[in-house]
Amino acid sequence: MDKRLVDEINKQITYEFYSAFLYLSMASYCAENNLLGFENWFKVQKDEEEFHANKFLDYLHERDEHVIITGFDNPPEEFTSLLDVLERSLEHEKFVTSRISLLLDIAYEVKDYAAIDFLNWYIKEQTEEESSFKTLIGQVKLMGDIGPGVFQLDREAGTRVFTPPIA
Length: 167
Ligand code: FEO
Known about the structure:
Ferritin; 5 helices; 75% helix; 0% strand; binds MU-OXO-diiron
């Protein structure tokens, strides 16, 4: 594979694990603020991010490339509200989408059609992730950050389960 593409996929593995830690930090904020349903929701999100990271890792091995595991900065731990958590999640997902677009740009540039096929899965996944955060933000804005409405949302968030996406 093209070296630049391999390097950027290795970086992406780090970003995906960082995402997992970010969502774990958000799950902790929710737990500490009695939003146990959203604590569950963000823990499931953490599982999804680990799935994304491992999918990249397995792909590099499949293509006979070297995987580099690195550390990363601490995720934020201070949040002001559930809405703040959700808005920062959406902002983060937009960043991840820009990263996947960069990988795809390189894959097209070097005509790596197998990588293009592989990366298209992430494009679809990012659209779904951004959309689910946008929906939650809209719902929290409608119901308010506190009050009976958010308890209903929290209850629904508590039913989320991790189902490994079909590759
Ligand atoms: Fe792995 Fe939330 O993007």
